[in-house]
Amino acid sequence: MRLWGAVASAALLSACSGGIVPPEAGSARAAASRPAPAPTPSRAPSRPGSLSETPIHLPARQPTPAIPLPAMPAPAASASTTTAAAAGVVPGPALDTLPITQESAERALTAYRLSCSALQRRTDSTGLTQGADWADSCRAAASWPARDARSFFVRYFETAQIGDGKAFATGYYEPEIHGCRERRAGCEVPIYGVPSDLIDVDLGLFSDDLKGKKIRGRVDGRSFVPYFDRTQIEEGRLQSRAPVIAYANDPVEIFFLQVQGSGRLRLPDGGVMRIGYAGQNGRDYTGIGKLMRDRGLLGPGQASMQGIMAYLREHPEEGRAIMRENKSFVFFKELTGAGPLGAMGLPVTGWASAAVDPKFVPLGAPAFLSMDRTDATGLWVAQDTGGAIKGANRFDTFWGAGDDARAIAGGMSARGTAWLLLPRGVLARRAAAVAPTP
């Protein structure tokens, strides 16, 4: 469920490195870095079918400050550390001492129920837990009353701090833009499905040194060549090669929806069409925000998604050229079931799900964040990943869809303390395993 923080993110401000297929983090969101502030929604059409109103973009919501709880004394994890187990794990505070609200506990319990089965089947890359560790809490969660959700977490979990526990959280949401199922005046930007001639190549089949590496491209005569880039696609090279699943009315909005990886199209009749990530052209991602900042196009306070979008609209020809410098292009599919989906293949829950680095947080596990703003403080369930959500204590919080989600995610940049919630007994087992032999 793919990214937006308080300053422009690497998803907008920096380039994706490496020439292999960019990382993908499930249907909810395209791989992205520290999220940039999200714009508030465009003004709704004055009547069904009206698509010509100019979008408005309000400032991101200002947070209510809070004082984070102090972390337990522990050294910071080394930058070269690759798992939670290697980063150092220390017991955190007792769960019944943490300021867990009833609302936060209820949302987290709902989200935890969704991922429990998958959590037990997955191999935990953190090195901390085994599938069977979660069995008791999963059985209990299935019938635990929501009104007593806080006591569920107190009963079945203990807190663990990874490294120094210093946490950083951004936010993402499911964006909504105007669109149509068929092309019409004012709704003419094609949204493509996966092209029929786009080919994935597993390089590991050719060399053991390239295991896990893939490239994408197409066959041209007897050669395998890179797939069409953004400019070529926008100039019509996909005609007869890819289905058009819908149309957008604003090229800037659909550009940013590609960065996000999934979203909603508000249709002229008031209905909603949900679309999600289906593929990518294999070209490197380039963050246009960094390009604009380096060229002096963004002044102080403009390095936000709102500022970037405003500049692109005010300078349409230059804006189109800037967007085309990002050669990466995302293809979509219509989503008809529950969603958006996170990296576990399960629906993510607004105000409860978070994207994490699965090497430091078990996917499906709860965590408690005590942050310097009240909205980010509470229980979150790790149900998604992100291409640049890396390292210990890094969280990308999901806020759902709609005005509130866009406003909160747009300004989300919180710092504080994180504690994982692990099944009771895991820390004691780990301590016994690492204790020196007498």
Automatic annotation (TrEMBL):
Class of the enzyme per the UniProt entry, highest EC level: lyase
GO MF entries: hydrolase activity, hydrolyzing O-glycosyl compounds; peptidoglycan lytic transglycosylase activity
Keywords: Cell wall biogenesis/degradation, Lyase
Gene3D superfamilies named among the record's database cross-references: Barwin-like endoglucanases (2.40.240.50), RlpA-like domain (2.40.40.10)
Its EC number(s): 4.2.2.n1
Ranges of biased composition (kind: Low complexity): 25-35
Top-level division of the source organism's lineage: Bacteria
Gene Ontology cellular component annotations, sorted alphabetically: outer membrane
Keyword Lyase found: yes
Gene Ontology process terms (BP): cell wall organization; peptidoglycan catabolic process; peptidoglycan turnover
Domain called Lytic transglycosylase MltA: residue spans: 176-333
Catalytic activity: Exolytic cleavage of the (1->4)-beta-glycosidic linkage between N-acetylmuramic acid (MurNAc) and N-acetylglucosamine (GlcNAc) residues in peptidoglycan, from either the reducing or the non-reducing ends of the peptidoglycan chains, with concomitant formation of a 1,6-anhydrobond in the MurNAc residue
PANTHER family the UniProt entry points to: MEMBRANE-BOUND LYTIC MUREIN TRANSGLYCOSYLASE A
Protein name as annotated: peptidoglycan lytic exotransglycosylase
Organism per entry: Sphingomonas naasensis
